[in-house]
Amino acid sequence: MLKDQVAIITGASRGIGKEIAFQLAEQGVKLALVGSSADIHQTGSELKQRGFQHVETFQADVANEQQMNEVVAQTLESFGQIDILVNNAGIGFFKPVDETSIEEWKKVFEVNVQGVFIGAKAVLPHMKERKSGTIITISSDVGRYTIPNGAAYTATKYAVQGFSGSLAQEVREYGIRVGTINPGMVDTYFANSVQGAPEKQNWLRVDDIAKAVVYMASAPKHMLIDEIVLHPLIQTYPIA
Fold this sequence. Notes:
This protein is of the alpha/beta class. It is 42% helix and 16% strand.
């Protein structure tokens, strides 16, 4: 169902974004991968070594509108269309509000919220013209509840939920679907943690999130999946 579609994936250098890239490639999707560091090119090389040749990589800042517009333009030049946008890039830090600097607050909003807005805005003219497209944002289950020492990160995820819900209503008449995937704790590199650490053995895996992306993107054209929420079966952290 996804064969020969074209997807832009942000934050694809490692972790969840990299696994999304591999799983979409296995479905026959052509890929435009975006990362903030030169590591993104290594992801592209690994995909090509596995036999997936329809891959372009871009070192770009998702919070920079000009750079993301260039990613979209070059993707269209290379592949002729954009069917899927996966807003996966995200950052986080966890500390009390009175210890949070305005620079930290701004940075997490720039990546987690402004980046989602810019990515969606960049692909919308093309998707509207084609009257087709799927925009998926990897959010978090903290977009539905709150946690201590995570006010800035939590606030960005509430913002993403509101943005995605409003956008979905705006663009459904164009055949464009907008949804979020909201996982609980995932064994990845998030917030400079160690992937595979012993305390994460019961957490979600990156392939769990990637499978959810494939499922959401593969839904029949008449169906909109607004939201997928995933939690570890064995909860090893508190939920308020």
